[in-house]
Amino acid sequence: MAFQIPENLHPDCGPVVWLLGTWHGNGRGDYPTIEAYQYKQEVVFQQDGRPFFHYFARSWVIDENGETIGQGAQETGFLRCLPEGRLELVLAHNTGISEVWYGVAEAGKVELRTAGVSYTETAKEVVAGHRLYGNVEGDLLYAYDMEAEGHPLQPHLWARLQRA
């Protein structure tokens, strides 16, 4: 699908401009505290000319035939773009977790690590995370590693999404 760079794009957002738009696709989730599962997902990155993107993601648990069998996670936040490809990400999750991330973007790749995680008394105890996003053959590939509930940092989610 053709992609156009917005005329009002803030210069600091240049290294992540490829993320803009709506993405759909499928992924997998796994962790020692849960049963492995498959999901479909929609991810949206929007901008308004200031040095940040608004981010929203939602997912649905699917069966082996790709049929929806339940609601999945939702998260929203702001990817704040700084000079030289530096990034800050603030996220809030429907599961009662909020996070601050720092990272960098270069050559179609975004890498972020948590600087702080907070969670409500009913949320899972998440300690840290690592996220990778990549533009691979025009698709958005990502992986999320998580340290939670006494387990070391390890793979939790991964997906391949196509621009809608």
Task: Please explain how this structure is put together.
The chain is mainly beta. The chain contains no helices and 10 strands. It has strands at residues 21-31, 34-46, 52-62, 68-81, 86-93, 97-106, 109-119, 126-136, 139-148, 151-163. Strands 1-2-3-4-5-6-7-8-9-10 form a 10-stranded antiparallel β-barrel. Strand 2 and strand 3 (52-62) form a beta hairpin. The relative contact order is 0.19.
Describe the secondary-structure layout:
Blueprint: E1 21-31, E2 34-46, E3 52-62, E4 68-81, E5 86-93, E6 97-106, E7 109-119, E8 126-136, E9 139-148, E10 151-163
Largest sheet, described in full?
Answer: 10 strands, antiparallel, barrel
Q: Which class best fits the helix and strand makeup?
A: mainly beta
Q: What's the count of strands?
A: 10
Ends: how far apart?
Answer: 8 Å
Which strand order spans the largest sheet, edge to edge or round the barrel? 1-2-3-4-5-6-7-8-9-10
Characterize the overall form: globular
Secondary-structure element series: EEEEEEEEEE
Mean pLDDT: 97
User: How much beta, percentage-wise?
Assistant: over 45%
Report low-confidence residues grouped into runs of 5 or more.
Answer: none
Q: Given the structure, what is the number of helices? A: 0
Helicity, as a percent range: under 10%
Radius of gyration: 16 Å
